[in-house]
């Protein structure tokens, strides 16, 4: 088949080369953005008297008909036409004749694909941040529901101090808010119009890039035509933001997996989001969070794929850049699916709050409260730390917990202890006492909840 670029060639492409170099098998998902960009380009060409208004009108009508075919599923993509751009152009020429050949005036596939990917990522960034916000709202509701529930907080996966379950869940809300902020900042670099850069050097024709940018909703215009067609930083930044949100989802998933074990027994995952064993009848496996954890590595791999792709490319466009799209598409699909499945699963998790409270009362989790009590009695913290360590060692030898100590036993370690120390040894009292800003006391957690409820009343996470 005759190629759009065949004038310089004597022989046709081989079938194997066509199969090897085609990208329409994956870039066809960009059809809507390609047509929108073409519509804006055709309007600009007519406005600048580069083509006639009559020709522009026929091009717009043809593009609209092609869009209808894509929407109805009747458009047939042809691999021998290489990519989505050439498929749409060939279909346009078939519909309206040689006038369709005028559409590619003052543009190249180099700036065209960059435009399509930027439009695509603008939309997907907004959809992903909306999904992040849904997960945040879900976690916030869970935090309100379990405001009085106490659990052991962990460091090094060892019981550390008692905290509210709500406080623990809000930690993920905080993480995800940073992800929203990163995507919001990333969007500034995505929101740059490359169209008009053409292949590398711009054009001699009197185009109006500002007009196209306004029509397509871009806030900036690329300032250097060479960089515009070879820049993939915006994709890498998007992938980096995606890898961060996946890391946070993986951490949450890891805790759900641990908490659902018999060893922890803090939660029961809903049946609908678990599986059984083909040989062990008793099993209830946390497959959904396990897969979220695994898919995180997949997204990390996509970041490295494009970093490696870009590291040795000379300016400007190289065909290597065709391989930038599969990692981006895969990342978008993966992040959206993980956010969606977690949002569906989280509300139906059953928390074994009594088990959590019982665990919070063991492991000497109020030891720091004892040390801080001694500090309030004017004992230097390092001395208080040593005294408390000896108290813990005593409890271990006696096989008792801190809250089981009496005042006589405590006074044996320091004469400053009074009866008021006993109220500091229960997990609930410890939680109430940690009322510093950002702490785990109910009053502090309520402030966090109110802050996020106010934030979530905004219309869009990207505003």
Description:
The protein has 463 residues and is mainly alpha-helical. It has three domains: 6-105, Orthogonal Bundle (Fumarase C, Chain B, domain 1); 110-189 and 233-358, Fumarase/aspartase (Central domain) (Fumarase C, Chain A, domain 2, Up-down Bundle), CATH 1.20.200.10; 367-425, Ribonucleotide Reductase Protein R1, domain 1 (Orthogonal Bundle), CATH 1.10.40. It is 59% helix and 5% strand. It is built from 18 helices and six strands. The chain has helices at 15-21, 24-27, 31-47, 53-72, 84-96, 109-145, 165-190, 209-216, 225-230, 233-259, 287-310, 325-345, 353-360, 367-376, 381-398, 407-411, 427-433, 442-456; strands at 150-155, 158-164, 192-193, 220-221, 267-268, 350-351. Strands 1-2 form a two-stranded antiparallel ribbon. Strands 3-4 form a two-stranded parallel ribbon. Strands 5-6 form a two-stranded antiparallel sheet. Helix 10 packs antiparallel against helix 11 and helix 10 (233-259) runs parallel beside helix 12 (325-345). The longest helix has 37 residues, at 109-145. The chain is elongated, with a radius of gyration of 30 Å. The protein starts with 14 loop residues before the first helix and ends in a 7-residue tail after the last helix. The mean pLDDT is 96.
